[in-house]
Amino acid sequence: MNDPQLEVFVRALSRLLGWAYMFSWSASFYPQPIYNFKRKSTAGLAIDFPTVNFLGFACYSIYTGTFLYSPLIRDQYAARHPASQEATVRFNDFAFAAHATVLSIIIYTQFWPSIWGFYVSRFQRISSTMLGLFWGCVLAPLVVIWIVLSRSPDGGNDPFAWAWIDVIYAFSYIKLLITVVKYVPQAWLNYKRQSTVGWSIAPMLFDFAGGVLSLAQLVLDSSLQNDWSGITGNPVKLLLSNVTIFFDLIFIVQHYILYYDSSDRKLQSEDDLTTPLLRDSSSRPQSV
Fold first, then answer.
1. What backbone torsions phi and psi does residue 41 show, to the nearest 5 degrees?
2. With bands split at pLDDT 50, 70 and 90, how would you rate the model's confidence at 261?
3. What is the DSSP track for the chain?
4. Is the distance from CB of 224 to CB of 55 less than 8 angstroms?
5. In the chain, domain spans
6. What is the dihedral of CA 126, 129, 135, 141, to 10 degrees?
7. Which residues pair with residue 156 across a beta bridge?
8. Ramachandran angles phi, psi of 119, nearest 5°
9. I need a labelling partner for 60 at 20 to 30 A (CA). Which of 36, 103, 241, 265 fits?
10. What CA–CA distances, in Å, run from 102 to 28, 108, 109, 285?
């Protein structure tokens, strides 16, 4: 970009988009726990979602934090991407990830009656698939660290061999994997119940707006550097935005079109929110 004034404007617009998407995505974490608190119940919310969600955002916090504050990781990125030199990770990415981790943990704890006293359906149990995914994601970075230490001639400092940046990329891929699969249990639960009652649509609306803004910032940053490898050099941000938008559209269709009148239906299940719910404090979710 040869025009200095235009470059200043684009950089300012990029920062504005970054903070806008951060606030939009951050806001998406509040409606569901507030809704649960008002109902004193988690019925209608798939427990698989918060179980893996906090792990995903913990990994994303590590990824964004090291790209911002680790000189080694930044140098290795610059060596692999000489045209752009600087990763397209911004402070707002890290701020969002850290905030999301905390809120995800709070939502997960709402499935523990001993903490909040909420009603938890006896059907709200973590699936074996999600448990396997959870522990597989915990072990995966350890495997990559072992590969780096065993195959790198200088202990992971050579950016063109197995390096520490590959460990950080592993955390980002874990976040991406979790994002791809975490929405599926909720979409399936809505389908089985033919209802979105008990599950808030507001987070998906904030989520959709954040995905669009995040994608716009990534494209703008890459155009600013005149290097479109800035997009592929930050694959997690690119794919997170697209996957988020895709699933948000599914939820929007479920809530506003397919099951629009579900709140008036008599759902023949324990989670029928049109009838009083029995508060059974002995009901506990399966622990990870």
1. -160, 150
2. low
3. ---HHHHHHHHHHHHHHHHHHHHHHHHTTSHHHHHHHHHTB-TTS-THHHHHHHHHHHHHHHHHHHHHH-HHHHHHHHHH-TTT-S-S--HHHHHHHHHHHHHHHHHHHTT-HHHH--B--TT----HHHHHHHHHHHHHHHHHHHHHHHH-TTTT--TTSS-HHHHHHHHHHHHHHHHHHHHHHHHHHHHHHT--TTS-SHHHHHHHHHHHHHHHHHHHHHHHTT-THHHHTSHHHHHHHHHHHHHHHHHHHIIIIITTTGGGS---STT-TTSPPP--TT--PPP-
4. no
5. 4-112+127-263
6. -140
7. none
8. -75, 130
9. 36
10. 13, 10, 11, 20
pLDDT in tens, 125-183: 888 999 999 999 999 999 999 999 888 777 777 777 888 999 999 998 898 899 889 99
Token pair recorded at residue 188: 């399936």
Give the confidence band of 2 by pLDDT, cuts at 50, 70, 90. Answer: low
